[in-house]
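Why does residue order matter? Because the sequence determines the fold. Keep that principle in mind as you read this record.
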Amino acid sequence: MAGLTTGGPNVDVSLLYEVNGAARRAPAWVDTAVSLAGEYGILLAMVLLVLWCWRGARRQDEAAAAESFTALVWAPLAAGLALLVNVPLRELVGRRRPFELHEGLHVLEPGWGVGLGNTEYSFASGHTTVAMALGVGLFVAHRKLGILGIGLALVEGVCRVYMGVNYPTDVIGGLALGTAVVLVLAPLALALLDPVVRAVAGSRRLGRLVRAGGRARPLPVDLAQNRTPPAGRRPQDEDLAA
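Structure:
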């Protein structure tokens, strides 16, 4: 598996140099913006998207709100789980950071350019894994916002290559890992989370987390329609009296 890191004239390394080379030609402020976006900004935007989706989901009817809230709870849980799965995967693959094996890269992430003996492995990209898991999880809850989230995950991957800290295949691996964890485990996870979410929705104190109106109240009974006519009077007499 370590052979994945070998250099030479291959598409992975060539694409790495091509994308990262843009960092040398770009103005300093562009490099700073990409570095901040790739390290913190896009993941923060993903969290804000999830919160925005939750805000809209609370305004739906009770059943739809509970379903959307369940999917939104699963999104960050899946992202955390994907990150945990990536820990042994990195050790198994054992792929070194690209700047440790290839000269001439313009490393943008703060700290990576100091002491190239850093031994943290790069496959799969952790940032891209988390971003994609959140994007796909969001897609389960809300199609349009989910597409936007998946688009941001793709941008995250490009940023990581631009910064010189991941190979393109590291990014592809992160996209695949985040997607797989969300979709493969979704049926089981949603089935387990659904009764918990419905219990929260029925709570007097916590119901507002799921639905803006709080805990659902029983509909009032129309007494006029369910009234039993007095003894000796026929229903037709009631209608005539009305």
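The chain has nine helices and no strands.
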